[in-house]
Specification:
The chain has 2 domains: 222 residues, Rossmann fold (3-Layer(aba) Sandwich), CATH 3.40.50.10260; 275 residues, UDP-N-acetylmuramoyl-L-alanine:D-glutamate ligase. The strands form 2 sheets. An 11-stranded mixed sheet has the order 1-9-18-17-16-15-14-13-10-11-12. A 7-stranded parallel sheet has the order 4-3-2-5-6-7-8, with helices on one face. Helix 2 packs across helix 3, helix 12 runs parallel beside helix 13 and helix 16 crosses helix 18. The chain is an alpha/beta fold. The relative contact order is 0.09. Bound molecules: ligand NPW, adenosine-5'-diphosphate and potassium ion.
């Protein structure tokens, strides 16, 4: 699913009006009907409704909803904020229709002073102050109104997006001036800011309402952001050849696990095997030999000369892909071996965990990274790598994207909606995965999966897309059977077979 920017959403709106064809007022009515339907499904007509409408089309939607609810027997009070005496055409038309319908309990147009109504816990507030047209943070009277609503006991339903939240960049927005909705009914598609962890507190429950905007525009318009769905992944997965043999299914090398961190290499290795690599070799320090042999008998063991850490780069000629980093530690000997390993590697590379941390403390080495390398940082690792200090998720995402462009690398920033930042500046978000996966070792599993896919011959973007999707899907299937609370990283590996099966259906 493409995630258009607010500018593109306006173009899409206009294109639909011109080409469907549908008049803009009828498109607004379509949106208002969908919103009204959702509200009526949740609250009976004994619920007092208070509608707050702004001067633009978000306000127009809200006034149409006020009329439709009143028509269906709800007690509706509506406030239209028209402080500059300037309404959008469709907002003005819906004001007229609302007044003419006469079913409304109270309609107030606010131009100067606003006497806020009493909001009881059983009241539902419909927020149509600002939607995708908000172009700067709220200030003054509107900010005060948001604060008033946030401190009220009423339930809030936001139309399209909670007022005060901007569709993309909220880096310099003020949290107290953004409405906290209980339910957000967003039109046609999620907005970029809805994918960010730090904005979840504003959204409440989020529903996407299909208002049938032009499929032609949606299909033909290039878009920087998209959410990967099952069909996108099915489209790039290759069937396993009947005549496949272990020599044709890729030989993966993992360099992982220092003494005390054998678990990370075990998880990555098992995941790599379960993701269908023909052969997996794991390079780890001598002291981990027995535990590795016993834990993953299917893998080939390669011992580092050192007892407890990775110290010697290896020849990658026999391998089709290398994953390096899980549980590696950040000893200086390991750091030097890592950069030597990166320099001499001839196969596709996945860099994770401690390998990323080592690069963060030796930034000059980043210039030596080959093109098309894959880095899989979690947010803290990305912050160390890119030197981000802000807690703003959008800013971090932009840093990750800039870094991907500068290095011509694939940066997979992990989390809910993991974001794959591509060298061309585009960003693909993953749609699978759940909070049960917030458990140590989940990332090691992802590294193993992506390394396997690279070894099998997928190019870097496909390996990342399929890898993060299957990883999340395995987590979802595991959570369905086991619940989220007790999920551990090993469960993700155990459910990878079912995730593959689901994609073969
Ligand atoms: N997508 C679709 O196809 C469909 C979309 N629809 C609906 O349209 C909505 C978008 O409508 P919209 O473009 O009229 O913008 P909206 O959010 O109402 O605000 C614009 C007004 O706000 C003002 N303003 C901006 N920032 C401000 C600030 N900080 N503080 C104060 N004022 C500020 C701005 O003023 P200006 O910047 O122009 O001076 C202008 O007056 C969308 O969210 C959805 O609900 C549906 O009807 C049907 C199909
Ligand atoms: N709430 C969540 N929703 C979806 N996926 C999640 C969630 N929490 C964690 N994950 C996934 O689990 C993995 C965690 O990786 P990471 O933080 O590197 O773990 P570790 O370092 O312990 O192996 C990532 O792939 C991430 O996307
Ligand atoms: K709104």
């Amino acid at each position: 699913m493409k995630i258009f920017t607010s500018t593109q959403i306006h173009e899409l709106d206009k294109y639909t009006i011109d080409h469907e064809p549908v008049s803009s007022i009828n498109l607004m009515e379509r949106a208002a009907k969908a919103i009204t339907h959702c509200i009526e499904a949740e609250w009976s007509n004994r619920t007092p409704i208070v509608v707050f409408a702004g001067p633009g089309n978000n306000g127009g939607d809200a006034l149409a909803v006020a009329r439709l609810l009143a028509d269906d027997g709800y007690q509706v009070s509506a406030f239209l904020f028209n402080i500059h005496n300037k309404l959008s055409n469709d907002c003005a038309l819906n004001k007229k229709r609302l007044i003419e319908s006469k079913r409304i309990k109270q309609f107030t147009e606010v131009s100067v002073n606003f006497e806020p109504p009493t909001l009881t816990p059983d009241t539902v507030v419909v927020d149509g102050l600002f939607g995708s047209g908000l172009n700067k943070p709220l200030t003054g009277g509107f900010a005060a109104m948001v604060k008033y609503l946030n401190s009220s006991p009423a339930k809030v339903v936001s139309i399209d997006i909670p007022s005060g939240l901007i569709c993309e960049d909220n880096t310099y927005n003020i949290s107290a001036n953004i409405l906290k909705a209980d339910l957000t009914l967003t039109l046609q598609q999620k907005k970029l800011s809805m994918l960010m962890a730090d904005n979840q507190k504003y959204l409440g429950r989020l529903k996407v309402l299909d208002i049938r905007l032009s499929p032609e525009y949606i299909q033909n318009t290039d878009c920087r952001y998209r959410i990967l769905e099952e069909n996108d992944i099915r489209g790039i997965m290759q069937p396993r050849d009947d005549f496949a043999h272990k020599g044709s299914m890729g030989h993966a090398l993992l360099i992982a696990g220092s003494y005390g961190m054998a678990g990370a290499s075990i998880l990555a290795t098992k995941a790599c095997l379960r993701a269908g690599a023909g052969k997996v070799t794991v390079h780890s320090p001598k002291r981990n030999y027995d535990i590795m042999q016993i834990s993953v008998p299917e893998a080939i063991q390669q011992m580092d000369p050192e007892e407890t850490l990775f110290s010697h780069p290896v020849d990658t000629e026999p391998y089709n892909a290398l994953g390096i980093g899980p549980g590696l530690g950040s000893n200086e000997t390991t750091a030097i071996a890592l950069i030597a390993q990166i320099r001499r590697s001839t196969c596709p590379l996945v860099i994770d965990a401690d390998a990323i941390n080592i690069l963060s403390s030796h930034r000059a080495w980043m210039q030596q990274l080959p093109k098309d390398i894959i880095l899989t940082p979690h947010p803290k690792e990305l912050d160390r790598l890119a030197g981000t200090t802000s807690s703003c998720c959008y800013e971090r995402l932009m840093k990750a994207s800039e870094l991907a462009e500068r290095l011509q690398a694939y940066i997979l920033l992990k989390g809910h909606y993991s974001a794959l930042c591509l060298p061309n500046g585009h960003i693909d978000f993953n749609s699978t995965g759940n909070s049960g996966m917030a458990t140590a070792g989940s990332g090691d599993v992802l590294t193993g999966i992506i390394t396997a896919l690279l070894a099998r011959g997928y190019d870097a973007p496909s390996a990342c897309r399929i890898g993060m999707y299957l990883h999340g899907l395995a987590g979802d299937l595991a959570a369905k059977d086991l619940g989220k609370e007790s999920l551990i990283a090993g469960d993700i590996i155990n459910y990878l077979p079912k995730a593959f099966l689901r994609m073969e259906d």
